[in-house]
Amino acid sequence: MKPTLFVLAAGMGSRYGGLKQLDGLGPNGETIMDYSIFDAIRGGFGKLVFVIRKSFEADFREKIICKYEGHIPVELVFQELDMLPAGFTAPEDRVKPWGTNHAVLMGKDVISEPFAVINADDFYGRDSFEVLGKALTAMTGKSNDYCMVGYRVGNTLSESGSVARGVCATDAAGYLTTVVERTAIDRVGDEIQFKDENDATVVLAENTPVSMNMWGFTPDYFKYSEDFFINFLKEQMGNLKSEYFIPLMVNELVNNGTARVKVLDTTSKWFGVTYAADRQSVVDKIQELVNAGEYPAKLF
C-alpha cells in the first residue's frame, strides 16, 4: 500500500494574503508546494490530502488542485476553530487556529494508511521524500512505530537571519528521545549556535538533527491525538493563544513509552522564505536544481 502525503495548508490563505499571491518561485511559476508534490509522487506516495480553511476551498480547487489531477488522487479536509471534540466550544474571542496537531486530526476520516505530514511552504528536497516514502511503505500494518526526517541543522539555515528549529536528541539506535524548539539559531563565524533558556550560548554540531515538521505516522496516531486533545483543551481552553503542536503529542507518546520515532537522516537541503530577503535566494536555488537536472523546467 502506498503512503499518503498530508499537506498542512490551513495557514496559507492568511499568511499569503489569499491564494492569488501564492508565490511562483520556479521557472514556470511553480510554488514550493509543487516541488514537494512532484518529489512525493516520485518517492512512491499514492495519495494527497490537503488540510485548508473552508473559506478558500473554491480558490484552492481552481488554482492548486487542478494542477495535480491526472498525476495523483487528491482529497481536501478542513480545519476550523469550532471543529472540537463533543462537549467543547471554542471561546468567542479566539482567532488563532488550534495548531498543527489539530490540523492533523482533520485527516482521520480519509487516511487509513501510513502517512507523511509536511508544511505547505517548506522546500524539503528530493532525498527527504525518497527516505520517508521508503520508511512509510515498510510501516504498513504496523502501529506505535513512527518516524521523522531529521535534517542536518547546517542544511537548514537562512542567509538572512536566525531561525527557529526543533532540535532533536536520539538514543544509540537512532530513535527520538526529545525534540526541543530552539529560537535564534544562527551561524556565527564557523559555529552554529543558539542561546538557551539561561541565556548561555550552546554550539550545535553541523549535522545535529532538527525537525522541519516532516513526520511519518501510522493511522493509530489519530486516536492518540484525539484522546490527548481532550486533555489539552481541559487545561488550555482559557488560554487564547495555546496551540496543539505535533511535537507536543510526539513528546508525550515517546516519554510515556507508547510509541517510538525513528529519526531518518537526509542529505536534502531545506529552504524556505523565512524572511522577505530569502525570496531571490530560493528562486536561484530552484533554478540551480533545474539546471542540474534534478527537476524538469515545468513540473505539471
Short recap of the structure:
Helices cover 29% and strands 26% of the residues. With 300 residues, it is of the alpha/beta class.
Distinctive features:
single chain, 300 residues, Spore Coat Polysaccharide Biosynthesis Protein SpsA, Chain A, 11-stranded mixed β-sheet, 8 helices, globular
Describe the structure.
The chain is α/β, with parallel strands linked by helices. The chain has one domain: Spore Coat Polysaccharide Biosynthesis Protein SpsA, Chain A (Alpha-Beta Complex), CATH 3.90.550.10. It is 29% helix and 26% strand. The chain has eight helices and 13 strands. The strands form two sheets. Strands 1, 2, 3, 4, 6, 7, 8, 9, 10, 11 and 12 form an eleven-stranded mixed sheet that branches. A two-stranded antiparallel sheet has the order 5-13. β8 and β9 (191-195) form a beta hairpin. It is globular, with a radius of gyration of 19 Å.
- What is the count of distinct domains? 1
The dominant shape is globular
The CATH superfamily bears the name: Spore Coat Polysaccharide Biosynthesis Protein SpsA, Chain A
Task: Flag low-confidence runs.
Answer: none
Helix content: 25-40%
For the report, how would you describe the main beta sheet?
Answer: 11 strands, mixed
Q: For the terminal residues, how far apart are their CA atoms?
A: 24 Å
Number of helices: 8
CATH topology-level fold name: Spore Coat Polysaccharide Biosynthesis Protein SpsA, Chain A
CATH class: Alpha Beta
Based on helices, strands and strand pairing, what is the structural class? alpha/beta
Order of helices and strands: EHHEHEHEEHEEEEEEHHEEH
Mean pLDDT: 91
What's the CATH architecture? Alpha-Beta Complex
Radius of gyration: 19 Å
Strand proportion, as a percent range, falls in 25-35%
Question: Number of DSSP strands?
Answer: 13
